[in-house]
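Researcher: Please translate sequence to C-alpha cells.
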Amino acid sequence: MSGLVGKRLLAVFCVLVLVMPVFSSVSASTSTSGNVVEDKVWSKLKSEKGPVEVIVTFHGDDKPTAANLELLETLGISKAVSLKSLPMVGAVVSKSQVEELSQQEEVRSVVLNEKLTYYNAESTEYTGVDRARADENFKQQNGGLPVTGKGVGVVVNDSGVDGTHQDHQFGKNLVQNVLGSANLQSLTGIVPVPYVENVPNTDTNSGHGTHVAGTVGGTGAMSDGLHEGVAPGADLIGYGSGAGLFILDGIGGFDYALEKQDEYNIKVITNSWGGSGDFDPNHPINIASKKAYDSGIVVLFAAGNEGPDENTHNPYAKAPWVISVGAGTKDGALADFSSRGTEGVGGTFEMDGKQWTWKDEPTVVAPGVDIISTRVIAPLSGLSAPKDIQMIAPEHLPFYTVMSGTSMATPHVAGITALLLEANPNLTPDQVKQIIQDTATPMAGHQSWEVGAGYVNAYEAVKAAFALK
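Model: Translation complete:
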C-alpha cells in the first residue's frame, strides 16, 4: 500500500488497487440475468456458509415500489433497508435468494455491500480563493459582499462531523448533522433506511469527516480566521457513517441529499472515499451519483491515494457526470501518492437514453499535502503528531490537525464549487465542471490521465461563473 503522507492518530486512509480494461464499451440501459449479479457476490457466497449483505438495485428513478418490496418478502428476505429516493435496498440474502433475484426482470443489479476506504490553511491562498474573496469587482457583482458560498448547501458524505467544534458548529453553519449508519444484521423485516438527524457530533471514532468539513466551510472561529475553509458561508450538512464505511452507507448519503435537497438547498455532495474494481455504470454508487447529477447536484469524488502508478483511479470517480479530484502540493506540483488514470482508456455507454463518454483520468488537482483543518475535539494528551506540532501554533493544536490525501484535496474543490454557485446560482453541474476544467492551471510535465485539466484556480473559476450570469 502506498499513499498517505500525513500521520494521524484517529484514521488511516488508503485505496485498493483497481484494474481497468483497455477501452471498453458498456451498455447501461439493459441487463440480463447473466450479468445482474456481480462476481464478488458469488465469490462471497462460495467462501461463506451463511447469508451475505448485498445492495439490490431495481429499475426505476425513485424509491423501491410496493411490488419491489413484495418481491423481497416473497423470496423470504427478512433483513433489509429500503432507501427513500433511490431504487435500492440493502439486504441480507442467501445463495438461493440471489439466484432468484438474478432471474427477476425488475432487478437491475445485485452487488456486495463491501467495505469502502477513506482517502486520507494556507491552501486558500494557493488555490486563488483568497484573491477571489478580496476582488472588488467580484464583491460589486455579489451585492457588495465577498463570495463565501453563502446559502449553498454542501453535503459532507463521510465519517461524520463534530458539530461541537465552533468552526462548523451545529445549528449555525452546520445546518444539519445526520447519523446514517445502518446495521443490516440487527434488523427484522424490510424497513426504511434509518436517519438520525440533529446529532451534534457524528464523528466520534474517526476525525476524517470533520477535517473534510473544515476544509469545505469551516469559519476559522478557533484560529481567528487563520484556518478558515474555502466556503465559510456555505450551509454544511453532515452525513456520518462512522469509521467503517460500506456501500450502503455511501449511497445512504446520496439518498439523504436527494430527500432533503429542497429543504437545505443542497447543490453539492463531496465524497472522500472509494473502492476497487472496474468502472460499471450499473453499480449502485454510480446510479446514485447520476441521480444526484440529474437533480442538479454537483458530485465530487476523491481520485484515490495509490499513485504514482498508472491505472489506480477510484472507479466511482470515473463516472462522466462527477468531478474527480487528485492531490497536489501547495506549490502546484502533483503529489506522489495521488492516483492516476490510464492513458488512452475510456469508453462509451448508454444510460437513461443518452450516450455517455468517460475517460480514465482525474478532472482536476487541488491541494492535498499537509492540509491544516479541523480536528475532532480531543484532550491535549492525544496531540503528538509531529506534523501538527511543527505546523500549528500551540494555542490552535486542540482544534486543528494536519492530514494528507486526495480526501483533503476533494473538499477544496467542493468549497470552490459553492463559491461558483453563489456567484451564479443558475449553473448546472455540467457548467460547473466545465468551468473548473477550463480555468485550471496546466501542470507542466504531466498528461491529462495524471492530472486532468491541471491545478484548480478558484479566482479564474469565480470570474468565469460571474461572466455566465
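Researcher: Any highlights?
Model: The radius of gyration is 21 Å.
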